[in-house]
Every structure is written in C-alpha cells, then in structure tokens.
Amino acid sequence: MDRRAPFAPLHDQRPEDLFGALPTPCYILDEGQLRKNGECLKALADRTGCRVLLAQKAFSNYDCYPILAPYLSGTEASGLFEARLGKEELPQGEVHVFCGAYRASEFAELLQYADHIVFNSPAQLARFGPRAKAAGKSLGLRINPECSTQEGHAIYDPCAPGSRLGTTRAQWDRQMTEPLVALLDGLHFHTLCEQDADDLETTLQAVAERFGDVLPRMRWLNFGGGHHITRPGYDLARLERCIRRAQEAWGVTVYLEPGEAWALNAGFLAARVLDLVENAGVQNAILDASAACHMPDVIEMPYQPPVYAAQTAEQAGQATEPSHRFRLGGPTCLAGDVIGDYVFPASLREGDLVLFGDLAIYSTCKNNTFNGMPLPDLWLRRADGSLCRLTAFGYDDFKGRLGSRA
Ligand SMILES: Cc1ncc(COP(=O)(O)O)c(C=O)c1O
So what's the pLDDT on residue 5? Predict the structure, then answer.
C-alpha cells in the first residue's frame, strides 16, 4: 500500500491489479482526482467571486475538458494553438491568452478565438492593441512586480534581474502613454511556481506598491499561475484574503490561471523494467519509459517523481538494503536519461511494473520522440474505475513530424 497523495487515487489497490493489462509505457489520467481538484477550485471561486482558468500549458488533454468544464471559468493559452484548442474544446468558457510576443501573421486568427489578450510589453500593446480593442477584446498588460519569492529555480522566476517577462514600473513610466493606458482593461502578473499563498501575499504587496495607483482604472487583475491550491495543506484562507484585498482595494474582478492545480496527482506513468545492469555497485533498471522523452521536467526542472511503494534514495537514507536500491533510467542513448535513485521494498526484476505518480502535468503536453521513442498512449481511468484508451500512437506520429512523406 502507498497512501501518499500521488497514489491516493488508487484507493489501496495494487498497480498491477489496476493497470497490469495495459501496454507500457502509458499515461493514465484519473477522472476522480481531476474532479476532486475541480471541486476545490470551484468552491474557491464560489466563496470569493474570483474566476479560475485552466492554464493549458500544464495540462491540455482535451478529452478531459468535459470533466473539468463544470468547475472552471475558461482556459488560458500561451499562443495561437492553445487558444484555438481552448475555443474548440471548451467553447462555453472564456479564452484568455498571454504570449511573450505575438506575430503579425497570426493575430487576425487569434482574434477569432481569444476573449482576453494580454500583452507583455507596451510596444506590443501599441502594435496590436487598437486592432484587438476594435474587435471587442478585453486587453491586459503583464506587469513585472520585481518580487522574487522562489529560490534555486531561476528558470522559473520571471522576476529574475533582466527578465524579459512583464513590464516593470520603470518601463511603464517610460513607455505607457495615456492613450496606451486607456486601451487597458486589466493587468496580469505571473511570478510563482508550485508556491503557497504566503508568497502570493508578498507578491501582491509588491504589486500594490508599484502599480497601486493605476489599478483602480482596471476592471480585472489576473494573478497568473503557480498557485499549488490543490496540494494538501495549501493555505486557502490566505489566498482568499489576497483575492478579497484586490477586490476591495481596486474594485477588480480577480482571475487565477493555475495549470498544475487542476491536474495535480491526477495521472500516472506506467512503465516496465526491460533490463537490469549492475556497474560499480550501481544497479541500473532500464525501463521502457524515458525521462528525456516522457517526463522531460525530470531533467529540465529538475525533480524526481514519486514511484509507487518506493522512496527516493535521499528519503530512504543510507541504512537500506543495497539490493533494493535501483537507479531508474530510460532506454535512450542519453547517458543522463536517468529518472533517479530509488529504494524499493524488494528487489526489482525484469518485467516488473513501475508506477510513477503525479504525471498528468507538464508531461503529456511536453513529451517527444527523441531516439524514435514511441509516445506513450493516454488512458483515462473513469470515476467508476473502468479504463478507456484515448490514443493509439505509433510510427506515423514519429515520422509525421520529421518530413513530408506519409
Ligand atoms: C503566464 C502563466 N500562466 C499560468 C501558468 C501556469 O502555472 P502553473 O501550472 O504552475 O499553475 C504559467 C506557467 O508557467 C504561466 O507562465
């Protein structure tokens, strides 16, 4: 039994009993957990009057959008394609888009899909804003409150010195002419990554200090993503105070656009052991799943995903049975295609099922076919426990991205 949050959706059933018949590697998305997350976010919206969007960059398996539809206000997109996906697959919701820079060639099409368009700079607002306004869109500017609240993750810190993301107050003062300000309906900030509401509170204070004078002119304020709202222990009361503060101080509608929180702990990656290779005391288990291809954030972020019934070697410490310690890696040529070192309750053998938890987010939407690795199929585990295959990926999905012939 593994009762940690990423495996709670299994309700004490063994992975082999639940997923043993599925071809591996495969992702399994969990309807029950998606609904649980959705209920938490909808209750927040009901209590505070804020509007909560799904940031599709984290989770865009649109077969699941009907599951999330009752709980969300709409979708958030990083550009044209996600905006189109949101409009096509969740037409009843609002479509918001923020992109670091829009291209002239895509803007007319974007206007067909987006309700809110957020610009990164005054120059982009000047270039595209009048056209978007004339098309009846609600316009926003991403601000940079210059308030870093995370350590050790510079790659995820939009407030790092010299950042290209968001307009600082100095840039605003230099470039935001009165006609440009008059185009705006709202402001947007995104500065957090897997953080609690205390960091939001600190950030909101910085927003108030730097942009408090212009906020009363706005109709909405978007708090971005990175709020780990559905994580057990998250400080919901403090988040609600932040939302109310903005509503009361500036009279704005508050938007949140989390990605992770919608699908946190709502998916698994099932893999099997293909081979065991011992070298200098390290027992390598080569899986049919790859960190580089199927869970790229393991290398990029970096982080070590939870494995059913196993502890990371760091958690387990040194006093463990060495024969139960394994380094899990993928079958690719990349020496660093390593998921991490784990301690299992028993020795691994060829053919064993290894179940990774919390792999719905930033995985299915970021995977790739490096080395000709097959894309893992997507399965949906419905609330009644039945399994439904959503995709049948194969050679054509690999070849189709690489050239012109079928
Ligand atoms: C502008 C913006 N909004 C929302 C999100 C979603 O963040 P998360 O999935 O951490 O909640 C991101 C993530 O990078 C983002 O850049």
Answer: 96
Domain boundary assignment for the chain: 5-29+266-399, 49-263
Distance CA 303, CA 300 (A): 8
Is any ligand 1 atom within 6 A of the Cβ of residue 224?
A: yes
CA nearest neighbour of 250 among 302, 305, 208: 208
Within 8 A by CB and 6+ apart from 108, the residues are none
Which spans in 3-79 are helix H? 15-19, 31-48, 65-68
Candidates 2.60.120.200, 2.40.37.20, 3.10.560.10, 2.40.37.10; CATH matching 5-29+266-399 = 2.40.37.10
Distance (Å) from CA 272 to ligand 1 centroid? 32
Residue nearest to atom 5 of ligand 1 (CA): 225
Give the closest residue (by CA) to ligand 1 atom 12. 225
Give the model's confidence band at 242: pLDDT under 50 very low, under 70 low, under 90 confident, else very high: very high
State if residue 122 touches ligand 1 by the CB under 6 angstroms criterion.
no
d(CA 115, CA 107): 13
pLDDT of residue 62: 98
Residue 394: both structure tokens together: 């194969």
Q: Cβ(82) to ligand 1 under 6 A?
A: no
Q: 49-263, what's its fold?
A: TIM Barrel (3.20.20)
Q: Are residues 60 and 79 in contact, defined by beta-carbon separation less than 8 angstroms?
A: no
